[in-house]
Amino acid sequence: MPPIEDHPLRYPLTNELHARPFPSLEVPCTAAFLAIKEPLDAANRDRAKDRAHLVDLLDRNASPHPQPDATHFSGPIGRHEVKWESHTEFVTYSAFTKGISARPFDPQEMQVFPEDWLARAPGKRLVSVLVRVEVMPDDDDAILAKLEDWFVPESLACSRVVDGAAIVAGDFRIDPAGIMRFAVFVRPGVGERRVGRIVQRLCEIETYRAMSMLGLMRARKMSSRLNGIDPKLSELVSSLDSAAQSPEATLHELLSISAELESQAVQVSFRFGATAAYEAIVNQRVEVLREERIQGRQTFGEFMMRRYDPAMRTVKSAEARLRSMAERAQRAAELLRTRVDVERSAQNQKLLESMDRRADLQLRLQRTVEGLSVVAISYYAVNLAAYAAYPFTEPLHLTHGMTMALLTPVVIAVVWLAIARIRRHID
User: What is the rounded CA–CA span in Å between residue 272 and residue 218?
Assistant: First the structure.
């Protein structure tokens, strides 16, 4: 028997699990990270431009090119190990360098990404991070002294992570060079892959935090619009039982508000959905750090709880408000349509009653005309009958007047019976 065939997607699906491996970093080292995103409709961007931008960087250093349909690439550029990844809405570049500079967080360490090359990027810079990785001193006070010198103490977050393997710190502020800085102090003997995982998680925390905060900007913009719609909707709902305004006009205004709310929902649905996904990733990346407090300093988790979670709650609140207003407008429109239908039913009932009255009057008129018709037909019929009976009445010496007097009741009765029979047949 021939061997069973593989599903055409079996290998691509499995390879996707291993598409973005963690880097292996030797301590001390420096990591430069960059995320670039199109400001509008990034999910539908031309990804060929992203790859062309990467190829331009590789050509500068005579480095090998990735596959044409690649979504990730890793290779050397000079003394740096560069990693490129294409995501749904953005692309990331990571450059890892052995050793550290004498000046902590020297902007020159970002020069692996030349300024003229960055200026031609198919998008805008969303994240720029420098991570300084050092050997952990024996004294925590020495570490805290460095951190207070490098970062803003008011927003500094630091903690011991991954079962004490390292101490990580950052203040989530952008320095004058446009760079966000993180410091990692690694305990001697920690494996290179574990160091790589810690550094990558810090970069992912900042990247997905920035991406999720885009939803906050959209929520604020949408909330200002909802603030203008809400009073109009409330006024229309409160006037549903008022006779001052035409129900048709009120229904038209309600439908206009409903259309605008639906338009807002379509515009923000992708961004709010992406924000929820990015928020989940941020919380998961913070959780896997397994933080331990250092001398009462706030941890990354506490920093996020105080400064990041309120922003995400604002997004969820705006989304819930939009959904609630859309439901209110829909219910109000249904109630108003019911009112309009009831009023139209009443109008139709009055119209039917008026038609019944006109039909009754028409029937009475018809019967009156039928009575007059009997008289008119009988008049002519009596005259004809009198002439027809003349040969029979002359031998009896009956005058013409006497003959007509005798025939008149008989003719009238016959005509009336004939018309009545015709009417019954028609009915």
Answer: 8
